[in-house]
Amino acid sequence: MPRVLVDLLSFTGTKGGMETYTRELYAAIGRAPAGYEFVGFVSREGAALDTSWFPGRIVESGISGENRFEWAWGELTQVSRAASRERVDLIHAPATLGPRRASVPTVLTIHDVLYFSHPEHMSTPLYTEPVKWMEKQASRNAARIVTISPTSASEITKYLHVPGERIDVVPLAGSAPKGVERARAGEEGPLILAMGNRRPHKNWAALIRATALIPEDKRARIVITGGRGEDPLTPIVDEYGVADWVDLRGWVNDEEVARLYSVATALAIPSFAEGFSLPTIEAMAAGIPTLLSDIDVHRYVGGDAAHYFDPTDDADVARAITDVVTNAALRAQMVRAGYAQAAGFSWDRTASETLSVFDKVLGRH
After folding, report:
1. Which segments constitute the Glycosyltransferase subfamily 4-like N-terminal domain (predicted)?
2. Which terminus of the chain is more exposed, N or C, with fewer CB under 10 A?
3. What's the pTM value of the predicted model, to 2 decimals?
């Protein structure tokens, strides 16, 4: 049985969507006979977390996934050494970066190439060039690249010069968080939920500015979760005088996520760019209308179920919010369409198509 080393050096409990992808993918692989044996090469922080979802043996690397220098050294050099020690047949690096060289083939999952396509929106400019260099090295070493949307595939070809025939598009999936009770929708009044980190490409400020444009009698409360430390959105809330309407939250636990999904009127994502959109799938699966910036990847994920707006036009953002808050028939139609759209994305599909890539690389049919 072929053995696969899974690069879990970036798995630390703080990486959001990429960790959700890794966890859900391998949990789904574990639910079905894969014909492979898996070894997880995990960071020091990840080793302290629950890894019961992983369908194989965990090897502790002793490498920090939070220390950027230590982590980069680990990705570039130590993953390949671990693969040699474990005598595996294949490496899977599921979090965009991986080994510079390896003695066995590598399948690399690249979620996006925002450091190339949107460098102006990166919050760590000193980190941009090193990451770009690492992405180039990892992509050159990879036998095949998996990515999560057609948008990312075209940008990988454009910026990393990877031929399209070496790229496989395998979309992500999502499910409603446990404990969501949509019968409670609206019990706290109109509420627009927004969830994610504070990187500039997320464009959360657009929701704040749009709120200021909406008459108070038609305003919804905006809850933006995902902040860490001093929130860069606070000065914008103060500038526009909407502190009574915008609630800035840090990372929230599963119980609070379920509560917010239960009472929300809609989910809003005003991003300028994304590799995919897990929150969109999760919201639609939970029966929550979704308001999305009109970018190609959101059209791919949201289809005809979402309500779109121009992320550069605050008035258009305000229009979209007002439409969904004031129109019950529109919300009901979006919920029905959202259930159907979300059903097209499943982790079992993601797992099956990923295993097919492994088969392709190893010549298994």
Report:
1. 16-171
2. C
3. 0.88
**Using CA atoms in the order 38, 171, 350, 142, what is the torsion angle rounded to 10 degrees?**
-30
- What does the pLDDT look like over 223-282, one tens digit per residue? 999 877 889 999 999 999 999 999 999 888 889 999 999 999 999 999 999 999 999 999
Contact 349, 281 (CB under 8 A): no
**Which run of H or of E encompasses 201?**
none
CATH superfamily of 182-342: Glycogen Phosphorylase B; (3.40.50.2000)
Using N-to-C axis directions, what is the helix angle for 17-30 and 347-362, rounded to 10°?
80
Q: Do 19 and 109 meet the contact criterion of CB atoms below 8 Å apart?
A: no
In the chain, count H helices and then E strands.
15, 13
Residue 202, amino acid: K
Q: Are 204 and 175 in contact (CB under 8 A)?
A: no
Residue 61: C-alpha distances to residues 74, 226, 352 (Å) = 9, 28, 28
Element (H, E) at 147: strand 144-147
Looking at the chain, the domain(s) classified CATH 3.40.50.2000 span: 3-173+346-362, 182-342
**Closest by CA position to 267, among listed 251, 300, 289, 247:** 289
Q: How far is CA 222 from CA 219, 264, 266, 325, in A?
A: 9, 10, 10, 12
Query: In whole angstroms, what is the distance from residue 37 CA to residue 88 CA?
Result: 9
Strands 307-309 and 290-293, sheet pairing = parallel
Residue 162 DSSP code: -
User: pLDDT per residue over 160-197, tens digit each?
Assistant: 999 999 999 999 998 898 999 999 999 999 999 999 88
Give me the amino acid identity at 82.
A
Does residue 37 contact residue 5 with C-beta atoms inside 8 Å? Answer: no
